Amino acid sequence: MGLTREGEETICREESRGFCSGDRQSGLLVGEAPSRRNEERTEHRFGDLVHCWPIKMDLKQLIELCPEFHQDAQGDPISWGIAWDVLRFLENRLAKGSKTLETGAGVSTVLFAASGCSHISITPVAREIATIREFCERHGIDMSHVQLLEQRSEYALPALDLDDLDVVLIDGRHAFPSPFVDWFYGADALKMGGWMVVDDTHLLTGTILRDFMNEDHNNWRLIADVGNTTFFEKLVATVHLGEWTEQPYILNRMP
Hints:
The protein is α/β, with parallel strands linked by helices. The chain has a single domain (5-251), classed as Rossmann fold (3-Layer(aba) Sandwich). The protein has nine helices and eleven strands.
């Protein structure tokens, strides 16, 4: 089961406090044995924390560092990022050159970048973009293949030339109808066999979208539910051809 937002925040803060409190000269983490990986370490500063970290970052390292790209209601830094076990599952799908899209931005954006994906992330929050860029720059993560668009997704997506995407992650604004708008533009841009990832399915908008796709067996195959995130595989080239009479979710709820 995926971590709750509260659980993610607790782990983030605890790991951040304990990180790199070991031997600063050797650059080892607490309890970490020397290895070839530690031969190439560099010191980075992010916010008020100094971290000793390999130049090339993998998901395990990102989880331990747990950057806080978002803000809570009081304006304090926090991580509202997608659950770590979801990122572990997603990581197996990503490869250098994968074409990917996400609505929203956070630790998932860093994972897409570190995996070498040709990636587009859409968020209207300028601070998120700035802190993600700063984090990646300080940790040697190449962002030349990543576009961070400061705009609401319902305005950005119609203007983008999207096709043959390998992964679409819907994790932006969750108010109605935003997830459905994101899905509409992302679904046809996704290639056959590509993955549609719907986050926050515990919210009503996410629940409806998940259930709609799960009942549409002609167009989508359920791959996995990981906590509050669902992974689907696209089975056809185009999913927006049919009428409501061909949508099981609608038909099954007719009075």
